[in-house]
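name: query_chain
kind: protein
chains: 1
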Amino acid sequence: MLIVGIVIGFVLSPWVLGRWNAQLYDHWFVGSGPGKAQLAQFDAQTAAMLAGMSGASPEAAQEKAQQRELQRQAIMQLQMQPAQQAHTQYLAGLRASLLLVMALIMILETLIDPAAPADAGPARYRGRLATIRYACLSAWLALLIAAPTTLLSVSPLFVILALLLALGFAIVPLGRNENPG
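structure:
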C-alpha cells in the first residue's frame, strides 16, 4: 500500500501531471485562484496592444513591453500569491490531519488485547485499523510527493524526521506491554 501511495504521488506530481495537464495540477496543488484569469486577460490585452504598435519604433515597443512585464509581475504578486499561500496552508493542514489520524489509530491499536481471539470483540478490528493506518500513510506520502513546493519552506532535517516518524507509524505500531512489572 505504501508503494501505491508513492506511485500515486509521482503520477500527481508536477513532473507527470504538471506536464501532462498543467491546469489541473495548478487547480489541485497550486491554487492560483482568480488571479490566473486576470493574468490571462492581461496577457491578451498586452499582445493586442503590442500588435497595434507595429508603426512605432522598436525601442518604444520594447519599453512598453518591459512596462507591461512589470505590471504582469505586480498582478502575480498581488493576486496570485495570497491564493497560493492559502492553498499551501490547506494542503499542509491536510497532511497534518493524516498524521494525527495515524497516531490516533496507533493509540486505538494499543487498546486491543493482543491475547484476545482474532474473531471476538474488538480484536476483530485489528486488521482493519492497520489497513486504515497504511492508507493514511499512503495518502500522506502521495500528497507530500505531489506538492513538493510545500517542502521548500521547511528545513530538510524536519522533512527527514517527519518521514521517519510517518514510517514509524506505519511499521511499528504501539503495543501493550506484556510484562507490566
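note: The mean pLDDT is 78.
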